[in-house]
Amino acid sequence: MTPPPAPPATTPPKRRTPAARQRVAGLWAAALLALLPPAVLGGLGWRLLDQELDASAAALAADLARLRSEVPAADWPALARQRLAGDDVAGRLASVADTDGALVATSTASPDWPTRSAAAALHGGGALVLTRSMRGPLALGALLWLSAAGALLLWRRAPPADRTASGAATRADAAVPALRTLIESFHDGILLYGDDGLVRDCNSAASRLLGLPAEQILGQPLARWVDLAHGATTVGKVESQAHRGSPTRPFPCELAIARVPHPGHDLWSATLRDLTERNLAERQLQQLANFDPLTGLPNRALFRDRLRLAIARAGRSGQPMALMFLDLDRFKNVNDSLGHDAGDRLLQQVAARLGAALRGSDTVGRSDLEQSFTVARLGGDEFTIVAESLRSADDALRIAERIQQALQQPVLVGKHEIVVSTSIGITVYPDDPSPPDDLLRHADQAMYRAKELGRDQVQFYSVELNEQAQRRLQLEGELRHALERGEFELAWQPKADIQSGHISGAEVLLRWQRAGQSVATPDVFIRVLEETGLIMPVGRWVLEQAARQIVAWRRAGLPWLRVAVNLSARQLRQGDLVRTVSEVLETSGLPSAQLELELTESMLMGGEQHQRLLHRLSALGVQLAIDDFGTGWSSLSYLKRFNVDTLKIDRSFVRDTPHDPEDNAIATAVIALARSLKLRVVAEGVETPEQRRFLLDNGCDEFQGWLLSRPLSARAFEAWWRQQLLLASGAEVEHATLP
Question: Domain 475-726, what fold?
Answer without folding.
Answer: TIM Barrel (3.20.20)
